[in-house]
């Protein structure tokens, strides 16, 4: 199946080693009203250097599932892809109730929101002509920054919109969950009602949950899970993420993809809460999985072939080949 990258269509079999969840840019809604701006030229330069570093480590494709209202910048992504040669795939889709979903979308129906997603996927984002290659969803906020007790009505509406856009376009769904209140199971329940094929669903941010029952419940239903926050140690230590990962692989579960959820450029300015988290996460960068996590997996007895499954074959199957 053909996938939209920011520089044109590719075939899923050509993805190669894929980081499934990273961010070139991010900013909370309203950052652009702060009158701070950002130095585009220098940030593009830094992003290109970071792409070259991970290309040297074997990474061929970079998925940036930034929600549409959180500082997604298709032209920034396209410029970085052109200058570095990295394949970059971006997303359509809204974030969660705690941090996103601007009022305009709160007042639209699920079908209207689905139409917005479908238009972006098939015609492009705004006037850029740049098309997303997947659909982002989000439930729950960020551990330590929000209290989440259930999927909210607005989040459910966006999940249903995303499911309908998925069925119409074939683009896969990538789902943010909060590690402190993960709603992966409930997300799948809603997708099931909408008739989504779970082979096109990645329940993200699972690695910091540390609950085998949660992993089994999701994997046994045929969805993928993201071990996609390596390096974000204030949320969960890498040792815990690795223990879960190696345990799952040892008993035969391997529908898992790896990443770091690292942010290259916070737009406008950053904040004490984010700065505090990043100070305690010195390894939160695009190269950490290749440089430190894969070597630890090999040392623990995970085979090269299994690492290829997680990093090459799984992204290819998830995107549809
Ligand atoms: Zn993310």
What can be said about this structure in brief?
It is built from eleven helices and twelve strands. The chain is α/β, with parallel strands linked by helices and 321 residues long. It has a single domain, classed as Alpha-Beta Barrel (TIM Barrel).
Structural topology:
Elements: E1 2-5, E2 8-11, E3 18-19, E4 23-26, H1 40-56, E5 61-64, H2 74-84, E6 87-92, H3 103-106, H4 110-123, E7 134-138, H5 153-169, E8 173-176, H6 184-194, E9 201-203, H7 212-219, E10 224-227, H8 238-250, E11 256-258, E12 263-266, H9 272-279, H10 288-299, H11 304-319
The protein binds zinc ion (ZN).
List keywords for this structure.
alpha/beta, TIM Barrel, eight-stranded parallel β-sheet, 12 strands, globular, binds zinc ion
Strand order of the largest sheet: 3-5-6-7-8-9-10-11
The rounded Rg comes to 18 Å
Give the CATH level 1 class. Alpha Beta
Structural class: alpha/beta
Describe the overall structure.
The chain has 321 residues and is α/β, with parallel strands linked by helices. It has a single domain (2-319), classed as Metal-dependent hydrolases (TIM Barrel, Alpha-Beta Barrel), CATH 3.20.20. It is built from 11 helices and 12 strands. The protein has helices at 40-56, 74-84, 103-106, 110-123, 153-169, 184-194, 212-219, 238-250, 272-279, 288-299, 304-319; strands spanning 2-5, 8-11, 18-19, 23-26, 61-64, 87-92, 134-138, 173-176, 201-203, 224-227, 256-258, 263-266. An 8-stranded parallel beta sheet has the order 3-5-6-7-8-9-10-11, sandwiched between helices. Strands 1-2 form a two-stranded antiparallel ribbon. The chain has a two-stranded parallel ribbon with strand order 4-12. α1 (40-56) packs across α2 (74-84), α4 packs across α5 and α5 (153-169) crosses α6 (184-194). It is globular, with a radius of gyration of 18 Å. It starts with a strand and ends with a helix. The structure holds zinc ion. Residues 21, 23, 261 line the site of zinc ion (ZN).
């Amino acid at each position: 199946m053909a996938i939209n990258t920011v520089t044109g269509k590719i075939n899923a079999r050509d993805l190669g080693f894929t980081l499934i969840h990273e961010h070139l840019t991010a900013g909370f809604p309203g950052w652009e009203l702060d009158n701070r701006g950002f130095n585009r030229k220098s940030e593009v330069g830094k992003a290109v250097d970071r792409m070259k570093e991970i290309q040297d480590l074997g990474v061929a494709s970079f998925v940036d599932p930034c929600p549409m209202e959180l500082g997604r910048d298709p032209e920034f992504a396209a410029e970085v892809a052109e200058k570095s040669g990295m394949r970059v795939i971006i997303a359509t889709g809204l974030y969660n109730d705690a941090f996103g979903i601007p009022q305009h979308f709160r007042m639209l129906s699920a079908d209207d929101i689905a139409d917005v997603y479908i238009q972006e996927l098939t015609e492009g984002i705004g006037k850029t002509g740049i098309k997303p290659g997947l659909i982002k969803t989000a439930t729950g906020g960020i551990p330590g920054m929000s209290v989440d007790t259930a999927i909210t009505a607005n989040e459910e509406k966006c999940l249903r919109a995303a499911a309908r856009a998925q069925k119409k376009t074939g683009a896969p769904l990538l789902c943010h969950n909060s590690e402190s209140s993960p709603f992966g199971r409930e997300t799948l329940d809603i997708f099931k009602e909408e008739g989504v094929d779970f082979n096109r669903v990645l329940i993200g941010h699972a690695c910091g949950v540390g609950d085998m029952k949660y992993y089994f419940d999701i994997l046994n239903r045929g969805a993928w899970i993201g071990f996609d926050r390596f390096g974000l140690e204030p949320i969960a230590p890498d040792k815990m993420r690795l223990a879960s990962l190696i345990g799952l692989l040892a008993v035969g579960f391997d529908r898992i993809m790896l990443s770091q959820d690292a942010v290259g450029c916070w737009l406008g300015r950053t904040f004490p809460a984010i700065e505090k988290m990043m100070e305690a996460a010195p390894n939160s960068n695009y190269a950490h999985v290749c440089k430190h996590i894969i070597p630890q997996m090999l040392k623990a007895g995970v085979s090269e072939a299994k690492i290829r499954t997680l990093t090459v074959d799984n992204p290819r199957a998830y995107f549809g080949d």
